[in-house]
């Protein structure tokens, strides 16, 4: 038996018609103009050959008796006629037509009696500049089966670096195929496995509690000291209330309520945009910003533009929930979700882009420091006996009773950055031109902006509740405008050294200064 971890199972228990819990991506594929095959059948044959290397695609859920605990994964051969399907769009359809299709398909729940994935192939797209044949591919994988980085790793199994698919070795396929569990497991065996898992999880949780309590006590004391120090500094320095409010960056305060922070409906709005990655890297290095910092700044600028037009623009900064991977560097042994969530203030209340960037850099640094202290307290697994009933009932009640409108707003939207492949890839002989993520929106967080790097571009997918934000195409245009704003930002000058320096300090500076003509 392979029981689901707590976080993975939560994506199942919390899923409703209004909150589908699958992730995916919209890919634009290109084949030569003289391609004469049926790409749908070609893709099915390609996936069939890679299935032995992709356990995630050949397993399904086995529910525990009486739904007492989290379900388990068991082996199941997918029916590729059902899992890979085709659609005919009107001839000459463009990206907007594809985005409209994804808006509709993203609300369809995956069949839990089958492996939790589905691929949708679209015909009828306008050809490339040299007459190349183009197809759309929308992939769906349930978040209970993979997180963002695991989905990228799965793509590495399915995709190739050349138009000619690589040959898979029989030994690799055999060892990978033997990795799964048997589908036929008796009721007694399932209960025994569930009980053993609960005991193990309870023991691990009990062992972690003393350390967690100590960490939380230390954090509380540090936070109190920081607040007291900030107030004392304000009194002594005579800071005005306005200056203090503008410069204050805290992750303890709540986010302002916006149209994004209500209960979501079953309708979605989806749009895409791409940004040049090398250019973004060049500019963000000049500002001493990470790629994630630059993305947050661009999203903040786009959101400020959007709310300035559609209103109201909150006087307080919008706050983004930011998923953070908990995986060890270079390790991808498990496909299950290994991530947590943090929050960062975006500085959308600041009209000056330079001030907004400085604010966001500080906020990002604060978030990283806080996350480093608390990430060890966030278990990805925990006892689940009885939780499926409670979570499923709670999720239904949460939506029907519009609880999101009554609770304080912790964050306004989700912004996620997933590192992707660094070189162009191919699928069943077709070149992959883009990888636009399509992610999850939930009650209280009606907009999800997910970014994935691919080769020399950043592919951005904007998924929103259509009732909360139907104009995702407009927000995508604002992202492009905010990107240009980032490129035009003047680089902040380093602060000058103090004119008054001690003799020893000045002497050290003279000794260590590089000579003319030599590299510093």
Can you put this structure into words, describing what you see?
It is built from 14 helices and 15 strands. It is α+β, with helices and mostly antiparallel strands. The longest helix is centred in the middle third of the chain and has 51 residues, at 187-237. The chain starts with a strand and ends in an 8-residue tail after the last helix. The model is unreliable at 170-184, 201-232, 238-248, 379-389 and 495-520 (pLDDT under 50).
Give me some keywords for this one.
520 residues; alpha+beta; Chloramphenicol Acetyltransferase; six-stranded mixed beta sheet; 20% strand; disordered C terminus
**CATH 4th-level superfamily of the largest domain:** Nonribosomal peptide synthetase, condensation domain
What's the mean pLDDT score?
79
- Uncertain segments are 170-184, 201-232, 238-248, 379-389, 495-520
Order of helices and strands: EHEHEEHEHEEHHHHEHHEEHHEEEEEHH
Task: Name the structural class.
Answer: alpha+beta
Secondary-structure map:
Blueprint: E1 2-3, H1 6-13, E2 22-31, H2 39-50, E3 59-62, E4 72-75, H3 80-83, E5 84-93, H4 95-105, E6 117-125, E7 133-142, H5 148-158, H6 170-177, H7 187-237, H8 241-247, E8 268-276, H9 277-286, H10 291-310, E9 319-325, E10 339-345, H11 353-374, H12 387-400, E11 413-418, E12 426-427, E13 430-438, E14 447-454, E15 457-465, H13 472-488, H14 503-512
Helix pairs in contact: 1-12, 10-11, 10-13
Q: Summary?
A:
The protein is α+β, with helices and mostly antiparallel strands and 520 residues long. Helices cover 39% and strands 20% of the residues.
